[in-house]
Structure formats: C-alpha cells, structure tokens
Specification:
The chain has about 260 residues and is α/β, with parallel strands linked by helices. It has one domain: NAD(P)-binding Rossmann-like Domain (Rossmann fold, 3-Layer(aba) Sandwich), CATH 3.40.50.720. It is about 50% helix and about 15% strand. It contains eight helices and seven strands. It has a seven-stranded parallel β-sheet, with helices on both faces. Helix 2 links the parallel strand 2 and strand 3. The longest helix has 29 residues. The radius of gyration is 18 Å and the shape is globular. The N and C termini lie far apart (about 35 Å). It binds nicotinamide-adenine-dinucleotide. One of its GO terms (molecular function) is 3-hydroxybutyrate dehydrogenase activity.
Length: about 260
C-alpha cells in the first residue's frame, strides 16, 4: 500500500484524474487534487476522498498554463505532507479543427496544459524524490502519443511530446529509484470525450451516433470505451514495488487501437 506516500494528481477534479486520485487514496496515500471547476463540486470531491478513504486531501488551484502556480502546487504537497512521492501529470484539454482554421491561442493553450505543465511539475518535484531515493512519475498520454487522427494537431503534437519527455527523464532518473512512465488510453468515456462530439460532428459532417460508433469506437477493436477505473488501476500498479523495473515505457490501454 501507499500509506506513507503523497500523490499529486493534476487535472483531478474530473474524469481520469479524479479516478486516479481516488485510487491512490484507497491505497492510503495523502492526496493533492488539482483542476478547474465549480468550488462546491471541487470541495465535494476533496472531502469525499477524505471521508471515503480516511486519508488527507488538499486542493491546489494551480492553473496548468502558469509555471509559477505549478511549482506552488508541488510545494503545497511538500509543505502539507512532507513529500511528493507520486506525481501524475494528467491535466489535459482537446480541440478539434482543421489545421488552417486552428486558433493560434488554442494551439498555445494545449501545448501549455498537455505538455509544458508536465515539464514544470517534474522539474519542481524531482529534487525531493531524488533526496528520498524514491519516486513515481506517471504521465497521462494517449493513443494519440503513438498515432494521429485528423483535426487534432495540437493534441497529437503535445501527446507525442509527452512520450519524449517521459523517456528522457526516465533515463536521467534511472539510478535514483524514480520511475517515469506514460499511460496511453484509447477512448475513455469522460467529459473530455463527450465535449468533443459536437466539434467532431461539425468538422466531419456526422451525427452524434456516427461520431461515437464510426469515429471513436471505430478506432478501438474491442468496440468498448476504456473506463477511468481501469486507467487508475494501472497508475496504482505503476506506483507499486512490482513495477520498479518499468521505466521509460508508454503503456497502452486502448482496446487494441494502436495494434492496427
Ligand atoms: P476531463 O475533461 O474529464 O478532465 C481534465 C482535467 O484537467 C479536469 O480536472 C480539468 O479541470 C483539468 N484541467 C483542464 N485545464 C486545466 C488547467 N489549465 N489547469 C489545471 N487543470 C486543468 O478529461 P479526461 O478525459 O479525464 O482527461 C484526462 C487526461 O487523459 C488528459 O490528459 C487527456 O488528454 C487524457 N486522455 C483522455 C482520453 C479520453 O478518451 N478521455 C484518452 C486518452 C487520454
């Protein structure tokens, strides 16, 4: 179990991140949750983690586009709980558009949240992990870290970047008891996926049912969505001692998508 550990999970007010934060809490870890949303809903998620799993949880409002706030988030974990042992870079957004219409500010925002934020948080968390000779860094990448889909230029570029960052840092930290990996889910049913349906309908001229069956699940040979709890279970495994020799890896959980 993870009783003596602290986990920081970015983008954990919703979807995959929330499931990962709750899974670590179930293992006894202290938790720093982070992400956007209505204050009462965030407080409900935070308090729920404490009451359901009997652990401590604090909320960091850090905006993943702001390097100084990202560093503050890591420091909040260290000052509140004494260490940040597990760092999950999970915050992410999507935007779907043909390249020639892709808004420049959306490109910049996606690269900032989906890629740059991981650099800033890793940079802040590594000295403490090195000092304690133990750490787990887990980046939520995507099947789009391995293959592309049209109209997702920024997202695919950022996710391919995350795997490069993961491999590089894994090599740098290999002898320090710190593993660095990414998890690459296929389509997971979360608000992020739900929200991109209208834009994909528009970009491809399809109905909602066609987007779900012919675009999303078309990519996934199992014809099923991945669940947030399945992704969280892999994150917990990567944090165990059994996974100490898994580093620099990009672990797919995509119903066979990238086998094609
Ligand atoms: P989600 O929309 O449910 O959650 C995203 C989280 O990121 C939320 O907590 C949100 O508040 C947070 N966030 C967004 N912008 C932020 C910012 N500027 N600062 C701080 N937090 C911010 O989406 P999800 O599907 O759970 O996605 C989580 C991760 O999983 C993302 O990196 C996404 O790319 C990846 N992913 C998702 C799928 C999928 O099918 N859902 C597949 C592969 C990879």
């Amino acid at each position: 179990n993870l009783k003596s550990k602290t986990a920081v999970v970015t983008g954990s007010t919703s979807g995959i991140g929330l499931a990962i934060a709750r899974a670590f809490a179930k293992e006894g870890a202290s938790i720093v949750i982070n992400g956007l949303g209505a204050p009462d809903e965030i407080e409900k998620a935070r308090a729920g983690i404490e009451s359901e799993f009997g652990v401590k949880a604090v909320y960091s409002p850090a905006d993943m586009t702001k390097p100084d706030q990202i560093e503050e988030m890591v420091r909040l974990g260290e000052t509140t709980f004494g260490s940040v042992d597990i760092l999950v870079n999970n915050a992410g957004i999507q935007f779907v558009s043909p390249i020639e219409d892709f808004p420049v500010e959306k490109w910049d925002q996606i690269i900032a949240i989906n890629l740059n934020s991981a650099f800033h948080s890793i940079r802040a968390a590594v000295p403490g992990m090195k000092a304690r000779k133990w750490g787990r860094i887990i980046n939520t990448a995507s099947a789009h870290s391995l293959v592309a889909s049209p109209y997702k230029a920024a997202y695919v570029a950022a996710k391919h970047g995350i795997t490069g960052l993961t491999k590089t840092v894994a090599l740098e930290l290999a002898t320090h008891g710190i593993t660095v990996n990414c998890i690459s889910p296929g389509y997971v049913w979360t608000p992020l996926v739900e929200k991109q349906i209208p834009d994909t309908m528009k970009a491809r001229g399809l109905t909602k049912e066609q987007v779900i069956n012919d675009v999303m699940l078309e990519a996934q040979p199992t014809k099923q969505f991945v669940t947030v709890d399945q992704v969280a279970a892999l994150a917990v495994f990567l944090s165990s001692d059994a996974a100490s020799q898994i580093t620099g890896a990009n672990l797919s959980m995509d119903g066979g998508w990238t086998a094609k």
